[in-house]
Amino acid sequence: MKKLAVAAGIIAGIAFGMAAVAQTKPTIPVIVKDLTSPYWQAVLAGARKAGQDLGVNVVGFGTSDANGQIGILAKIVASNPAAIVIAPVDFAALGKPIDEAAKKVKIIGIESTADTTAMTSLLATDNLNAGRIAADALAVAITKSYADTEGDVAIITAMPGIASLDQRAKGFKEVVAAKYGALDIVAEKAADGKPATAINIMKDLIANTADLRGVFVADPVMTLAVGQAIAEKKSDDKINVVGVGSDEKLVKFLQDDVIAGLVVEDPFRMGYEAVKTALAASKGQQVSAHVDTGVTLVTKANMSSARSQELLKPKVE
User: Fold this and answer.
1) pLDDT-above-90 percentage for the chain
2) Domain 127-265, CATH among 3.30.365.10, 3.40.640.10, 3.40.50.2300, 3.40.190.10
3) According to the CATH classification, is domain 2-119+266-294 in 3.40.50.2300?
4) What distance in Å separates the CA atoms of residue 214 and residue 229, rounded to the nearest whole number?
5) Angle between helices 248-255 and 220-232 (to 10 degrees)
6) Do 127-265 and 2-119+266-294 fall under one CATH topology?
7) Can you tell me the distance from the alpha carbon of 156 to that of 141, in angstroms, rounded to the nearest whole number?
8) Model confidence at 43: pLDDT above 70
């Protein structure tokens, strides 16, 4: 009920927000999954920067509730924007609403897709590639620690059935199978989305996997939980961790050698390119159906570089 109430409040403010922007510029609303997380704040920051550079009014909305997103989408379509950017929170639920919206306005998807073929373009991380990069990074870390690329490794993810996380795990497993035959994936565990569960999974792996040398963690929340379990372990055996995502605590773990690497997305670029693509599509210009917004491996060795700092500390003002 709380999510729906929040979404209703957002919807109630749309008419005012859309009417308040100057009509001399095209308006492109950007609907994200959350207005408070650093990731989505960076997406919106990139979108706003594109708006400044391209002369577009960018109006941000966010909710993690599918019904809330559907309501926001309907209200925005009625306001006749130039185009709409949306990160669907639910694959199935947002399919038909996007189909209907696309009959009146160009729809640009970001980060995740929906059960629709009506999106003009989708800008997202290549999650298979993120997993592949993580596999190579973990192999390098294990080799550095043990002077060989052998032993047991595990995969931990937040929840089963999430497409982006499943793709990261798939990419990881493909590279391990193809290039690192002496690494044995002995466990693939999914938590219930709760850090405490991931900590318990990791502690169980530490206690019961004698030759555990590496762990791939498919999302930032679980990476932080795994890092906490590693930091608290009593043994001196080195367990290398490579995760996806970043925040201040993960950067600290990277600095302290608790984790070996972070595969970092580029949400700022995603937001920027989405607005740029939406504007082009609204003018009838040809745009790419799929755009990979890229990932970068950040380690302790390269974390001070300008590019790493740009990704680890995106400007979200």
Assistant:
1) 82
2) 3.40.50.2300
3) yes
4) 13
5) 40
6) yes
7) 18
8) yes
Q: Give residue 20's pLDDT band: very low, low, confident or very high (50, 70, 90).
A: very low
The pTM score is: 0.83
- What does the pLDDT read at residue 10? 52
Pull the structure tokens for residue 117: 């073929």
The predicted pLDDT at position 231 comes to 93
Q: What's the confidence (pLDDT) of residue 314?
A: 79
pLDDT over threshold 60, residue 181:
yes
Tell me what pLDDT residue 313 has: 84
CA distances from 195 to 52, 146, 159, 200, 275 (A): 38, 29, 11, 9, 34
The residue count for the chain = 317
Query: What's the farthest any 2 CA atoms get from each other in the chain?
Result: 66
Domain ranges of the chain: 2-119+266-294, 127-265
Rounded to an integer, the average pLDDT of 230-252 is 91
- C-alpha 117/C-alpha 197 separation (Å) is 37
**pLDDT exceeds 50 at position 21:** no
The residues, ordered by sequence, that sit 6+ positions from 181 with a Cβ below 8 Å of its Cβ are none
Per-residue pLDDT at 161: 80
